[in-house]
Amino acid sequence: MYQVIKMYGDFEPWWFVDGWEKDIVSQETFDDLQDAERYFRKECDRFSEKYAKTKQKEDHLVAFWDEEDRYWCEECDEELQRYHSLLLLEVEEPHLKKELIHSGESCLRICRMKQDKLA
User: Fold this and answer.
1) How far apart are CA 35 and CA 29, in angstroms?
2) How far apart are alpha carbons 49 and 116 in whole angstroms?
3) CB atoms within 10 A of CB 54
4) What gap in Å lies between CA 14 and CA 17, rounded to an integer?
5) 34 has which bridge partners?
6) Calpha distance 22→9 (Å, rounded)
7) InterPro entries in the record, alphabetically (predicted)?
8) What does the alpha-carbon distance between residue 46 and residue 54 come to, in Å, rounded to a whole number?
9) What three-state secondary structure class fits 87?
10) How far apart are CA 81 and CA 93, in angstroms?
């Protein structure tokens, strides 16, 4: 099973900082990798049309942003950028773990989180 997750928050998706799950705005689940990748690419294209800035890590972690979308963080005492992000994750039900998909030779990146952290 595969998930495409959309996030909106003040860090890029590849950091997976504590509490990153609170920034999830939607997630779509797919049984087939090709369907998940097709949806992921479609959403990347859509975000690319809307936001001028983009950065990608691995094949399935992408952040999009507008330089004007910032807010003042009292705790940090600085202005922080907000990002719209897309992630493609694989869910392996027997072990309830998630892994980043790395396309190419069907290898999986070692980046595992417990299912219960993805609310």
Assistant:
1) 10
2) 33
3) 14
4) 9
5) none
6) 9
7) DUF1033
8) 12
9) strand
10) 35
Residue 46 Cα to chain centre, angstroms: 15
Q: Which of 107, 85, 91 is nearest to 36 (CA)?
A: 91
pTM of the model: 0.74
The 10s digit of each residue's pLDDT in 71-98 is 999 988 999 999 999 999 998 764 444 5
Q: What is the largest CA-CA distance in the chain?
A: 45
Structure tokens at 62: 């992408």
- Backbone angles phi and psi of 36, in degrees to 5: -65, -45
What is the distance in angstroms between the CA of the first residue and the CA of the last residue of the chain?
Answer: 16
Closest CA to 63 of 13, 102, 9: 13
Do residues 82 and 65 touch, judged by C-beta distance below 8 A? yes
DSSP characters over 4-52: EEEEEESS-GGG--TTGGGGEEEEEEESSHHHHHHHHHHHHHHHHHH-S
